[in-house]
Specification:
This protein has helices spanning about 10-20, 25-30, 35-45, 70-80, 80-100, 155-225, 230-265, 285-295, 300-320, 370-440, 445-480, and strands at about 105-120, 140-155, 325-335, 355-365. With about 475 residues, the chain is α+β, with helices and mostly antiparallel strands. The protein has a single domain (about 70-125, about 145-325, about 330-485), classed as Outer membrane efflux proteins (OEP) (Up-down Bundle), CATH 1.20.1600. Helix 1 (about 10-20) packs antiparallel against helix 6 and helix 4 crosses helix 6.
């Protein structure tokens, strides 16, 4: 048999490539694992339950550290500034609705005053005083006046004003949901990206450790005059590249972690509980299901509908302003000047001492017909504009749903294909390893299957990440958050 050169590059590269292989349960793929496990358990004596020296086992609850995806999403809904901004705007709209309901019935004014009045005695026939306003004899005088108007019939002004305000409140509520859906997608992207970055970093670090061992072994062989310096340079080149890849993974991890912390509003130490990427549980159905869900649940569609309702109410309000308001006017007043003689004759106007009250049925009509006609045309144009926006929203939502659906379908096919590729590459690697064990294969023959397995595993992780993000996008564009991956 021809002797092999000591520590060839192929033999040194095998541990590095195998390091990229994930740690999986031995029972799933290794037929020797159950036997070895059984032998190990057989070698260990069973614990005696009746032994007096045996200490009772203390069962401690498993404490999960870090934030789960659901927790991150809930925190983002509570703390994200854009959501808070939408809430504040919705509160503003609700306050406008309260104003619209109460303003027509709050047309009340009250005036009051306090002043100095000269002393005036006598009647309308004779008075010893003159009409001089400022004299040496002055006293206090006061007045209070209350006026109000209660509309009874406005030809639709009040009802349409309230309808417009109510539609605006609906728009504000849908705006909140829109911002929540968007921040949910951002949180999920960052969460899944952080898990992928950490998995990539761990794989690269493990590979770097294995490669360092191979470099040390090869260096010792070269020192003995048995190794190949070209092989050493190749390994060191690959090792330097791993450092660059680790730095990229750490950068992505830092960015994703900082983004999650900002989106959730968390303070202090922050980390996530997720350790592995998992595909979504939702099974993709026909595209018509998601189109229907988007038309019913998508906040943008509901915002457009609310906008049309508000514009329609504003148009009716502008038309109603062509007509008068019919209502009841009320007035009451009290004036008192003790230094001025009170005139009891009802035919004498006494502005210094009097008390009056009363009400009357009245009409108030603004006769600006030409400007009112222009305002109607403006409201009609705004209504047509909003209807066009609604049609755009419906069409755009359909396009977004079909695009997101295609992304999910593509990601699903790629995830399954890469899962099969990972499985076949692992079977290939196991078959070659068994051949090496029995002497029918050479060690260098393990390089290609090990490299393919590592590559396909990484591709599978990326495909799961793409599938999770694509399903999250589909949840966003349909307004159907229940289909989003749970993380």
């Amino acid at each position: 048999m021809q002797a092999r050169r000591a520590l060839p590059l192929a033999a040194l590269a095998v541990p590095v490539l195998v390091a990229l292989v994930p740690t999986t349960p031995a029972a799933a793929d290794d037929p020797n694992a159950p036997a070895s496990a059984a032998a190990s358990s057989a070698a260990s004596p069973p614990a005696s339950a009746s032994s007096p020296s045996a200490e009772p086992e203390i069962i401690r609850p498993v404490v999960q550290r870090g934030y789960t995806l659901d927790r991150c999403v809930n925190l983002a809904e509570l703390n994200y500034p854009k959501v808070a901004e939408a809430r504040a705007k919705a509160a503003y709209y609700r306050a406008q609705l309260d104003e619209a309901r109460s303003a027509p019935f709050s047309q009340w004014t009250m005036t009051a005053g306090l002043a100095l009045a000269p002393t005036i005695r006598g009647t309308s026939v004779y008075s010893p005083n003159t009409d001089v306003s400022l004299t040496s004899n002055m006293g206090l005088a006061w007045r209070a006046q209350l006026d109000g108007y209660v509309p009874l019939w406005t030809f639709g002004k009040i009802t349409n004003l309230i309808d417009a305000a109510e539609s605006q409140v609906k728009l504000g509520e849908h705006q909140i949901q829109k911002e929540k859906n968007q921040v949910k997608l951002d949180v999920r992207k960052a969460y899944f990206g952080l898990i992928l970055a950490r998995a990539s970093r761990d794989l690269l670090r493990e590979s770097a450790d294995k490669l360092d061992d191979a470099i040390r072994k090869l260096q010792k062989s070269i020192d003995k005059g048995e190794g190949d310096e070209i092989d050493l340079l190749k390994l060191r080149t690959f090792r330097a590249e791993l450092d660059a890849r680790v730095s990229e993974a750490e950068r992505m991890q830092t960015i994703a972690l900082a983004g999650l912390k900002f989106l959730t509003g968390a303070t202090g130490d922050f980390d996530i509980a997720g350790k592995a990427l998992l595909p979504p549980k939702h099974q993709l159905g026909p595209v018509a299901t998601y189109l229907q869900a988007a038309r019913l649940n998508r906040p943008e569609v509901n915002m457009a509908r609310a906008g049309v309702e508000a514009r329609r109410a504003q148009l009716e309000l502008a038309r109603a302003r062509l007509y008068p308001d019919v209502g009841v006017g009320l007035s009451a007043g009290w004036t008192r000047a003790p230094e001025v003689a009170d005139q009891l004759n009802p035919y004498v106007l006494d502005n210094a001492n009097y008390m009056h009250y009363g009400f009357a049925l009245g009409m108030r009509w603004t006769l600006d017909f030409l400007p009112a006609s222009a305002r109607i045309q403006q409201a009609q144009a705004q209504l047509e504009e909003t209807r066009a926006i609604e049609r755009t929203a419906l069409g755009g939502v359909g396009f977004e749903v079909e695009s997101a659906y295609a992304e999910v379908a593509d990601a699903l096919k790629r995830e399954r294909a890469y899962a099969d590729a990972e499985k076949y590459a692992k079977q290939w690697m196991i078959a070659v390893q068994q051949g090496i064990d029995i002497g029918t294969e050479d060690e260098k023959d393990l390089i290609d299957p090990a490299k393919q397995y590592a590559t396909q595993r990484f591709n599978h992780l990326n495909a799961i990440m793409d599938l999770d993000v694509a399903m999250s996008k589909l949840a966003l564009v349909t307004g159907w958050d229940a289909i989003a991956p749970e993380g």
